[in-house]
Amino acid sequence: MNASPLSRRAVLAGAAAGAALAAAPLAPARARAGENARETPYRWRNVVIGGTGFVTGVLFHPSVRGLAYARTDIGGAYRWDDRAARWTPLLDHLGWDDWNLLGVEAVAVDPAHPDRLYLACGTYAQSWAGNGAVLYSEDRGATFRRTDLTVKLGANEDGRGTGERLLVDPRDGDTLWLGTRHDGLLKSTDRGATWAVADGFPPSPSASGQGVTLLVAAGRALYAGWGDAGGGTAPNLYRTTDGTTWQAVPGQPSGASAKVPVRAAYDRGTRELYVTYADAPGPNGQSAGSVHKLATTTGTWTDVTPARPGGDDTFGYGGVAADARRPGTVVVSTNNRWAAVDTLYRTTDGGRRWTSLRESAVFDVSETPYLKWGEDEPKFGWWIQALALDPFDSRHVVYGTGATLYGTRDLKNWAPQIRGLEETSVRQLISPPVGEAHLISGLGDIGVMYHERLTASPSRGMATNPLFGTATGLAQAVAKPSYVVRAGWGDHGNGAYSNDGGRTWAPFEAQPDIAKSAPGPIATNADGSVLLWVFVHWDGTKYPAYRSADNGASWSEIASFPKGATPVADPADPTRLYAYDTDTGSVYASTDSGRSFTVRATGLPSGDGQFELVAAPGRSGDLWLSVKWNGLYRSTDGGATFTKITSCRASYTLGFGKAADGAGYPAIYMVGSTEDITAVHRSDDEAESWVRINDDRHQWGWIGETITGDPRVHGRVYIATNGRGIQYGEPV
């Protein structure tokens, strides 16, 4: 989910060695409860889209039929429920302070103890991110204990599709190994309660950010891949047979096509280790790769590469899985192959001959139509590094892409095996007051979707004409809800409008030149007669805003509009629009339909942080300012003056929904804090009092992007998450 916004291809393709690593005492992985917060019970579910993010790893349990786990780069881990044929999320309990742990770097299971599960969590290895942690479960992820590390992990960094980097030692179930990006190889002898740097592992701690790329057991030997072996001439695969002494594996391949060991799988029947290689860790940036196998009993290496990259057909190799039931049967995946399209290759004779599965594949994406990407047929996929073969069913193969998991039971017919797994990063939400859809969403990587039902993936898939990668703006005319506009990163236009409430779209007839490289938020006034489009580059550079009064046929610059501010339409008066300048802490207002803006209130919070100006529905000039760390401010005079709301300590995002029975003001929904805990709150009395409506089991990490209530159903609320899709809650 860390794709570049520059093109559809890119969007669809986002301590020292001796330092002691003392672990925190094992404790339940849950949030702090606010002592004074009132709570009301809610039922929480995902709005169904189906996948929509990079599945970085899939692991079948080797000794339990139907048990599998999946990891994602920013959306947590999941357990497969074979009877229900769906995934169960395991990390929704992680709260606001632990958002960095929603990225799962690696998964490990204990073959001898089927209920044991280990997760290495940590999304970013940057200085501003928290350290990683290992979560340990004795009940397959129903509950966890947690060990905090003193090192960082990088589940959303380059190389996140390699692995697994976490391994239970087959000789001793109490011993675990963890490969890190910057701090070498770690070892635990007490099931993850404490960790220390492993003695005898030759490479120095990594500066480039790959470090140990994989750990795999082959018989009683352990192998570790090293992703920082220079130009491909230094050893990058190491082995230990005693758990103490590590040595470079003799005779291993070298060169650019074998620079980075990506994944490895052991064929127990033939005692051969298969390793996929590339010239970069991926998922982007690979142009060369190979597949080699090692006969572990003789030390003989054999090049078994199915197809060699070259010319315009550049790619690396990614996933690899060995059939536990049929010796010599192995499946590998290509990765970052754009010219000829990625595929899976399968061999039944130890790599002498390979068959590509792409050409005979038949896809059924009727359950998740967005996977057609606006075309007639779905693609085989991209970013294929997660690959698994069911140890109890040789024809059950699953592979992950940048958007979904595909599975087959016959090696020909494929369908998304994705129910329950939702990983979208959500940017905008609209709940229309009338019409078929209760929700329209703007999303990272997959544009805009029109949700006819909350319990099924949108039948129209992604909004097309044009097709976007990431949506940057979404707005509806309050007095004319059939009119909706959107903006985003697209190859064939960056803005579009709909006259049927978001069912179908047409591109703006024209757009400012800056739109292609810096599309930003977009707004329409109450009656849909005026558009305001703001331009902000992905690197943060702000540009002048533009206005259109002819549905996007022509545009004019608004010199008086504060650069980079998000325009807000007055819901009752089409001549009024507003904006908040975070640089100066000033509210701007227009009374001439956006032709000009003047400063109104000043002296409000400013600088770095999170700010959101929201207009209360059905009322002219009723504005609410949500401010990270500073709470809420309200204006009832169109932004001329603001009063601080004393019931709120911090606010990240604010939205409105249908009023409670007998109430004269819309319900207010807020992600913020009234006491000590950051949570989801609702107020039915104009913010005089609040009730917490989520609980410690439903927190989803960072959820501060946007929130909105349903204008037709009191109590229903929609929450944007950064990796767990759209959550919606209703009172029990």
Explain the layout of strands and helices:
Layout lengths: L7 H5 L14 E2 L13 E5 L8 E6 L7 E5 L4 E5 L4 E4 L14 E7 L2 E9 L11 E5 L7 E4 L17 E3 L7 E4 L5 E4 L7 E2 L14 E7 L2 E6 L10 E4 L6 E2 L11 E8 L4 E7 L10 E7 L4 E4 L12 E7 L7 E6 L8 E4 L7 E2 L5 E2 L23 E3 L7 E4 L4 E4 L4 E4 L9 E5 L8 E5 L3 E5 L19 E7 L2 E9 L6 E4 L7 E2 L11 E6 L6 E6 L5 E7 L7 E3 L9 E2 L7 E5 L4 E5 L7 E2 L11 E5 L7 E5 L3 E5 L7 E3 L4 E8 L9 E7 L5 E5 L7 E2 L14 E3 L7 E4 L5 E6 L1
Parallel strand pairs: 27-31
Antiparallel strand pairs: 1-10, 2-57, 3-4, 4-5, 5-6, 7-8, 8-9, 9-10, 11-12, 12-13, 13-14, 15-16, 16-17, 17-18, 19-20, 20-21, 21-22, 23-24, 24-25, 25-26, 28-29, 29-30, 30-31, 32-33, 33-34, 35-36, 36-37, 37-38, 39-40, 40-41, 41-42, 43-44, 44-45, 45-46, 47-48, 48-49, 49-50, 51-52, 52-53, 53-54, ...
InterPro entries: TAT_signal (IPR006311), WD40/YVTN_repeat-like_dom_sf (IPR015943), Xyloglucanase_GH74 (IPR052025)
Family: Belongs to the glycosyl hydrolase 74 family.
Organism: Streptomyces griseicoloratus
